[in-house]
Structure formats: structure tokens, C-alpha cells
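ARCHIVE CARD
Drawer: 12
Card no.: 0347
Subject: one protein chain, sequence and derived structure
Cross-reference: see card 0346
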Amino acid sequence: MFGVIDFEQTSHQDYRWSIGFRNSHDKSMSAGVCAGARVMVCDNMAFSGELSFRKRHIPRNGFLHYIQQTFISLPEQLENLQTNLERLKIQGLSEDKARLIVFEAAENSIITSSEILPIWSEFTEPQHEEFREPTKFNLLMAFTENAKRYHSNTKAESVYRRLGKLFAI
């Protein structure tokens, strides 16, 4: 079973919260729940979000309790994520600092060197008008736009997770 629940929100238009889940009755994969502004749940085993957990199917693994605790803490965690995304929206970014972040992403193997120019191009001339202002959020959106081209969902999951650390979200 694979699923995603998207929540409609009126307070911001750049993203919306989603919760993803997966499970299998035959116990061929770990059960999991993920949540965040960008959630990926796919039958090729890609499973990611800003917050996620997976639990193996073993006796007394406390999975239901873990889900309950996750949903209790979820509002606070999503509020922290929203605060961080809003912070990125107001943090202006010089071209030099933006170049440094893109280079640091390549240097830390978050992206490949061949992705530097497409990301830079998307940042300086974005496809979406609302991402024209030079902010850290809009640079993150340039990385995200580039990641849409990945053929491997595993790579996209890894990049999203590591970009969160790079942008301190």
C-alpha cells in the first residue's frame, strides 16, 4: 500500500503539507510514514519527506505507538519547517554567495558537477515568475526544479535530505 495525503492551505502558496505512508501485508518492505512540504512515495521504494521513519515488521516493534508519537509531534515539527522556509524567503542572496552554495553542494557530492550550470541557470532565470527574487528559498527552488529531472527516485530522496542540511532546514 502506498499513499499520499495533501492538505490544502491558504496561508502560503509556495508549498503545502503532505503526509505519505507505505506498508505491505506480506512484510516485504518496512512500514513507514513521512511528512513535509515535499513528500515522495513511490512503488519503486522511493520514500522521503522532511520528516520520515520506517520500521521493520518484527514482533513488538512498537510501530503503532511510534506512529502515534510522530503525529503528536508533527504539528511542532512542521511549524519549525515552515518557520525555516519563511526565513529562507526573506534572506537575500548575493550572486557570489549563491555561487558558493551551489559549488558547496557539488563539492559535498549533493549534486554532480554537471548539474551546477542548470541549477545556476534556473536560479538566475527561473521558469516560474514567483522565484525571480534572489533569496535562499528561490535557490532551493532551483535545486528542486533540477531534481525533477532525476531518473532515480533514490537519488532525489538523497538530494532532498542533504539539501535540508545545506540550507539548515
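Annotation on reverse: The two ends are 29 Å apart (CA to CA). The chain is about 45% helix and 15% strand.
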